[in-house]
C-alpha cells in the first residue's frame, strides 16, 4: 500500500436528499446532485442506468417489485435473439435499462436498443467487429458510448447514428475489453495486453486507463497501469496490467477506484522460468488504484499480490461503502479478483481493514514453482471472476473453483477443463469478512451477484439461474436457461434481464412477475407414485423395474433439489432409478464431457400410460442428442419401467457397466460424473426446463 498524497477526505454521510432523490444504495457512499452525473442516470436511477446499477458498484436495487414473496411467479416475458456470435460467444456484458429502453452490445460489437415492454427492436447499430469481452454500453448526455472492435471507442446518438470514434490503439499487443463508464463529461475505458487473435498478454503490451471527452472523443488523460517504461526490463517478453471491469466512482469527491490485472508471462518461459523476465513487484499489477477522476492523477495504490505467477488478477469492480472500525465509521472500498480473496480498504489511503479467502486454495502463495508439475487453486479462470454485490452489510461473492497445473515455464493446458470446475456463492459479513452462508454449484459461477430487495440472484456457466433468500441462502427460485451464461443481469420494476451468450441460439431473456411458474423452487420429492408403466423388455429379476423405488432396492442415492438418482450395481450390471418433480421427460447423462459433448444419455417419460426410454448420445457441444441406433450403435437398456403421478416421474432401468457400444460411456469404479435434467414436456425435441451436475460412487465387487 502506498499513499501518494493524503489530501482526501471522504464524507461518511449515507444519504443526501436532492430534488431528484438519487440514492446510490443503502449503506454505500451517496451522491450529491451534480452536473457530473449524466441527467439520464439521475432520471432513471431506479432502473439500471450503469453497468453495476450505480457508481458505487453495489449491484443492489431496492426499487424493483421482485421479492421473496413473489419470485416464484417469474416467467419469460420475451426473448430477444442475439445474432452477433463471436469467437467467445455472443454476450459478455451487462444490459442497461433506462425507462422503456434496454441497451445491449454483443461480441461482434453490434449495439441494440430494445423496447422493454415487448422485446421488439427499436434500432441496431451494426459493426460486426470482433470483441472478446467484457464489453457493453454506457449512456449519458444523449449519447450511447460503446466499444468498436478491439481498438476503438464510439459515441452514438439516441437513434444509433455514430457521432465520433476514437482509436485507442492499433497494435496487436493491446485491445479494449471493458464495459464503459460515463461520468464527469468523461468516458472511462481501458486497454488490456494482447487482444488480436485472442492472444492475451503477449510481449510489449501494457494496459492503459483512458478518459475521453464525451463531446469529442478526445483523450483527456491516461494512466499507465505498468509503472515501468521498459516493462520491467524485457519489453519483448513482458506485459501486464489493464482493467477488465468498470471502476467505482466516488461522485462527491471525484475519485475513481480501479482493479488492475496481472503481469505476464505467467508462470514464465523456458528462458525465464518463474517470472524471472520481470523481477520485482511488477507495479501496478494486481493492485487497487485510486485516481483523481478529473485528471487521472494517482492518489494511492495497494498491491495485494506482488510478482504474480498465476494470472490471479485483482480485476473486479471495486465497491464503495461505509463500515465501522474500532467503533468509528470509516469510508471503505471493497476489492476482489481471481486470486480468490476479498479485501476491505480505507478509501483515505488504501490501508487494509480486513481480508478473506474464498473458494479452494492450493499452492497459490508459492513465490517460485519447483521443478515438475504443481497443481494450483485457483487457476487463471478461478477465484472471484465476476462482480460482487453489497446489501445490508452483507457482501455476496461469486466463486469459481478451477485448478491449473504448472511447471516453472508454462501451464499444462491439457488439464485445464472449464467443465470440471465448480462454483460457490458466498455471503460475507461486511464488518469483518467472515462467512455467513455459502451455496455450492456443480458448474463455475461467472454470473456475478445481484441483490433485488430480499433476494440475491446469480447464474452459473451451465445456464442455471438462481434466486436465494439473501439472509439465509435458501433457494427461492431457479430457471434453466437455454444456453450458458457469461453475462450479468439488469433489473427494473417487475422485470429482470439475463444475457444468455453461449450455446447455439444466444438470446437476451426477459423475466417478468406474473402467473405461477413451473420453474419455481419446490419441496423435495417423495417416493410415492400412483401408477407404473413398464416397457416390453421388462424381465423379472432381483432388480424389480416397476416404477417404484422400494426400500433397500438401491445402495446409493443422491438428491439435487427436485431431482434424485438411486443406484446399485454388481460386477456386470448397473441398476438405477431417476426421479424428478416433472410430468415430462427425465434424463441422466453418464460421464459427460465439457458442454455435454460425448455424453451417454438415458432419457424416458410416461405418455398415455405407456413408458418410453431412449439410449442416446450427445454428438457435440450442448447436443444434438440422438438415439444410439441412429448413429450406428445399439440400444443397451436391458430392462426399464416408468411411473408418473401427475407430480413426479420415475424412470428405472438396467444396463451393462461396460456395453462395448461406441456410443455408450463405461461406468467405472470410483466417481462417475453425471448431468441430470428434466422437462415439463413428453417431447425429446423440447429443451429441458431444469438441469444440474452431480456424481455417483461405484464400488465393483
Structure write-up:
Helix content is about 0%, strand content about 40%. The protein has about 700 residues and is mainly β. The chain is globular, with a radius of gyration of 26 Å. It is built from 1 helix and 51 strands. Strands 12, 13, 14, 15, 16, 17 and 20 form a 7-stranded mixed β-sheet that branches. The protein has 2 domains: about 40-510, Quinoprotein alcohol dehydrogenase-like superfamily (Methanol Dehydrogenase, Chain A, 8 Propeller), CATH 2.140.10; about 530-700, Immunoglobulin-like (Sandwich), CATH 2.60.40.1190.
Key terms for this structure?
disordered N terminus; globular; mainly beta; 40% strand; seven-stranded mixed beta sheet; 51 strands; single chain; 2 domains; Methanol Dehydrogenase, Chain A; 701 residues; six-stranded antiparallel beta sheet; Immunoglobulin-like
Number of domains: 2
Largest sheet: 7 strands, mixed
Q: What's the rounded overall pLDDT mean?
A: 88
Instruction: Please identify the structural class as seen in this structure.
Output: mainly beta
Strand proportion: 35-45%
Q: How far is the N terminus from the C terminus?
A: 59 Å
What Rg is obtained from the alpha carbons, in whole angstroms?
A: 26 Å
- Examine the coordinates and then state which fold CATH places here, giving the name of the CATH topology of the largest domain: Methanol Dehydrogenase, Chain A
Tell me the CATH superfamily of the largest domain.
Quinoprotein alcohol dehydrogenase-like superfamily
Tell me the helix content: under 10%
- Identify the overall geometry: globular
Number of strands: 51
Number of helices: 1
CATH class group of the largest domain: Mainly Beta
Question: What is the name of the CATH architecture of the largest domain?
Answer: 8 Propeller
Unreliable sequence segments? 3-34, 515-541
